[in-house]
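new request in #modeling-help
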Amino acid sequence: MRVLTAAVAMVVGFSLSPAFTLAPSAVAAAPGETIAAAARKVVKLYGAGGVRGLEAYQSGILVSPDGRIVTVMSTVLDADEVTCVLDDGRRYPATLVGVDPRRELAVLSIGGEDLPAFVLDEADPVPLGTRILALSNLFGVAVGDERVSAQHGVIAGLVPLEARRGAYEAPYRGDVYILDCTTNNPGSPGGALVDWRGRLVGMLGKELRATSTGVWLNYALPVAEVARGASEIVSGAVSQPASAAVVAFDPAAIGVVFVPDVLDKTPPFIESTRVGSAAAKAGLVPDDLVVAVNGRAVSSRSAVREAVGRLGNGDPVRLTVIRGGAIVECDLGPKPPAAGTP
Amino acid sequence: MYRPSRRPARRQPTLSVALAVASSLAGIAIVQAQDVAASVRQAERTRVTTIAKASQAAVAIFAGDAGGGSGVLVSPDGYALTNFHVVQPAGVAMKCGLADGRLYDAVLVGLDPTGDVALVKLLGRDDFPFAELADSDLVEVGDFCFAAGNPFLLATDFQPSISAGIVSGVHRYQFPAGTILEYADCLQVDAAINPGNSGGALFDARGHVIGVNGRASFEKRGRVNVGVGYAISANQLRNFLGFLKGGRLVDHATLGATVATAEDGRVMVSDILESSDAYRRGLRYDDEIVSLAGRNVRTVNAFKNVLGTLPAGWRVPLVFRRGGRRMEILVRLAGVHRQAELAKVVAGENPAGKERGPDESPESDKEGERKEAMPPLPEAIRGLYASRSGFTNHHFNLVERDRVALALARRADVGGRRGTWRLAGRLASGEPFRIELSDTKGVIDLPTGTSTVDATGELDANPSPPGSGGMLAALLLWRRLLLDGPQQLGRTDYWGTQPLDPMALGEFSSPVMIDVLETAVAGIEAHVAVAADGAVTRIDLWTAPDADPCEVVLASPAPAAGLADGVPGRIDVRHGDKAFGTFIIEETVFDPEPAEREAVPAGGGTS
């Protein structure tokens, strides 16, 4: 029986693995050539970290010939200077152009000219079963002019992301590609997901687990989302570099006034609501205790500010409050844009 | 012997299950067999055949309660490569299963603790299935590859598990992780490498061995595959194979210098030992390293990669730059570790290893001279294991030494040549020379004068002729080796293999290798290179450690020279950076008996 199982696994492996012997018409280029060309557009990034569980390196992708780089927003970028090493070993200091806290994207710039770059387009998602190659500096194994690592796999799913790591919950809830190769490794976030023609399909996501099962997720943000996020960052539609972390939301924008914040964890009791505001319309009243924002538990004033801050502009805001021992849900409508202060 | 039932006809159900699973996983529509292009089906058949053939060479190694792993047969007489860390807990004897369903006894032959490589020999057949070592420098990122091994020790019926993938990276450097184990210049793969795959082969699409899987990056999920495995390259394995076959406890090499990256990215010498050969050959602090062993060095990792694949004692070309001047030298590499250090690593947490630790008696090559603490050897390997300091299994050193001795004896028909050997000819300058070698003395007549060495005493006292570093001693050694064989020559061991032409390293990634004997006699130490045809082609002779050896290169004569068989047509002698002389031999005389001491005029070669 064991032999049978092994044989099945073997044949399945091959059915899914790159068929290097496919007829020429089926594949534009040999994987080696595709990898070699695509890897030139993937960079190694070095910044803050180096403590247990938080690596000081990740990957990024070049998206313009003048050296604009998209990567994941992470603590690696919380450094005075982020160093970017190109495929050919050239080193550049990278400056942060901006971040998209909802998609957890960051755009960096290294200057330069005539650099090889991916095309960021709002392409339709690729079909399930599409063969892909994942290019990233996993485990930081490539240094200097050494090429980033290549892994192969297929697009196994396109599903909304529900992921977390410890207490941290991923703010992005849109669709991501689920991959059948292990890309959930230190250094992989920010790497390129390309098809067998070398076209950018997505960007490798962070090291996260599925909220419901705790399984480490191998996922990538589809290129269209990467493109939208990058374009919003560059056009200034989302937050500026000074606030790399989540932008705390000022509850005054929805008409909520909390009790004065005097403790480390001041309970988020509502002191008053502004007349005619979203909060008043939603029925919030003084002495309501906010216990959850959009279903996520909060225990302090600052947690409410952060939780609302994580929501995208225009996303619906729903507060769960305790009033006289009962739980009450209050819908406040769409989150107002950029009213927050850091 | 455990022999499970073999191969029921089950291809049809297997394939249909596989297709169904594949389709449901990947959302691919089930394709009718007739819709698949003939070329694709042919490729699939080829792949199935290749994997089936490669599987025959896969070894499931069982180390009893201590676990086990995988290996791969590389010769029909049963030599199999695996990892040091796989065999370490097993001791000197182990059981190995093959895909034929049979369990074989195996004996430990050689260890390379630094490179995490071990060589074992399966017993009982001389027609084992085996796999060829490929040229791993030709492997490219994206190449198809597959691993055949024993992950999680699943192979209770010895059928290897196959995992397929692509080459993710080449020339990777993996730092020693808390041990001396260093993975230099390794291949990185996304084929699943799990615990138990260690020691098994990584095959290319042709079913040739491109590496031995030995390490993987594990992290938050525990010790399971995360798509990042590392294999020791076939080319590194090939470099060490001769030493491992000689039963050695192998050491890796150091240049005697460290390098660092300068601000502008150049790789510079940051420190150098004055006792190193590199220093004596002219390498200095702040020189820029350009290439090592024929491979370009552009990063510190690249330097470590090249060095990590080379055995201690090899001579390799080194190119460096100083102030715009490019210089090329041949450097003899020293060992990284002391033998005691290596023995300690082997002993490790391993009681079996401790028993084959340092043994003070250098002549304890016979079974039965082992320490009393040693438990009796398993019956299966009796007579195939001998403990000795510096060796993993000295028995196999004798096997290799005797193989070389046989080649020497076949080549040099020395019957009737036990008397004085007289060689005469001309130097490159055209001036005459005369050499006389006997049991009692060595004499050389040169235009600059005559030198004599007492062949019965210590040979290191007075290296003669002056400036040669010990040419007469080397020639006396050569004569004694041919007359008496290596068994009778002081302490002579099989050393290993080295490239026939070190300068060609890098030009050919599979350099021609030549056997080398190591001898210590009469105060000198020497390396004697013996070609496959039994001709002695080179002698390096040291009269003191850490000094430059006398290098004697013996070239075969042109067929028309009319010289006796086994006599070189030309001898080149070097010492340090200086060429001492070129000796073109025109006449040879061999006296039949040692009793004849009178000088015989040179001329009239005998056969």
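bot summary: Chain A touches chain B through 60 residues (CB under 8 Å).
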